[in-house]
Design a protein that fits this description.
The protein has helices at about 25-40, 45-50, 140-155, and strands at about 55-60, 70-75, 80-95, 100, 120, 125-130, 135-140, 180. By secondary structure, it is an alpha+beta fold. The protein has a single domain, classed as Alpha-Beta Complex (Peptide Deformylase), CATH 3.90.45. A hairpin with a 5-residue loop joins strand 6 (about 125-130) and strand 7. The longest helix has 18 residues, at about 25-40. The protein is globular.
Length: about 190
C-alpha cells in the first residue's frame, strides 16, 4: 500500500498522457505488476501479511505514473474471473440508463470513508489496447462498467467523489433512468 498514491497528490488530478505504441517492455511490466498487486490484494493471506486493501481496479497514476493505462481484476456474477489490462482506453459509447452502488464507491487512493451515490452509465463500450498492444473493443455492463468508468476517470484526473451531488450526496440525477446495481436484473 505504500506504493499507492493518496488523494491530494497532483498526479491524481492530472490528465494522464497517452502511452506510446507499440508498447514498450517497461509499460507491459508495469501493467503486470499492477495486476499482481490487485491479485495479491484479494488474496486473504497475502493481503493480511502485507496490509493491503482489496482492490478491483488500479490506474497507472495511482502508482505515480501519468500514463493512460489501468488494470481490473474481479469476479463476475457467475463466479468467472474478469482480468483486463487497458492501454489508452476510451469510452466510445454508453447507455442512457445509469446505475450506482448503494454502498458507494471506494478507492485505493482514498483512506477515508466517502458517503454518497456515484451515478455511472449502466453499460459502456470501450476501445483501447491490451497488454500485447493489440486493439480491443469491449462492452461492459453493471459492476464491470462501474469499475471501468472509475478507472478511466482516474486517467482524466477525476476522483469518484467528484461525481457525488455536493448538496445532497444521496440525490441521483433527475430525468433519466437510474437504478441501484442490485435492483436491476438484466436491464
Amino acid at each position: 500500500m505504500d506504493d499507492i498514491v493518496r488523494e491530494g497528490e497532483a498526479v491524481l488530478r492530472t490528465v494522464a498522457e497517452p502511452v506510446g505504441l507499440p508498447l514498450q517492455a517497461r509499460d507491459q511490466e508495469t501493467l503486470q505488476c499492477m495486476m499482481q498487486f490487485l491479485k495479491n490484494s484479494q488474496d486473504p493471506e497475502l493481503s493480511a501479511k502485507y496490509k493491503l486493501r482489496s482492490g478491483v481496479g488500479l490506474s497507472a497514476n495511482q502508482i505515480g505514473l501519468s500514463l493512460r493505462m489501468f488494470v481490473m481484476y474481479l469476479m463476475d456474477e457467475k463466479g468467472n474471473i474478469v482480468e483486463h489490462a487497458w492501454v489508452n482506453p476510451k469510452i466510445i459509447s454508453h447507455s442512457v440508463a445509469m446505475v450506482y452502488l448503494p454502498e458507494g464507491e471506494g478507492c485505493l487512493s482514498v483512506d477515508r470513508p466517502v458517503h454518497g451515490f456515484v451515478p455511472r452509465y449502466n453499460s459502456v463500450k470501450v476501445k483501447g489496447y491490451d497488454i500485447s498492444g493489440k486493439e480491443v473493443v469491449m462492452k461492459f455492463k453493471g459492476y464491470q462498467a462501474i469499475v471501468v468508468q472509475h478507472e478511466i476517470d482516474h486517467l482524466d484526473g477525476i476522483m469518484f467523489y467528484d461525481r457525488i451531488n455536493k448538496e445532497n450526496p444521496f440525490k441521483l440525477p433527475q430525468g433519466i433512468e437510474v437504478h441501484s446495481l442490485y435492483d436491476q436484473k438484466d436491464k
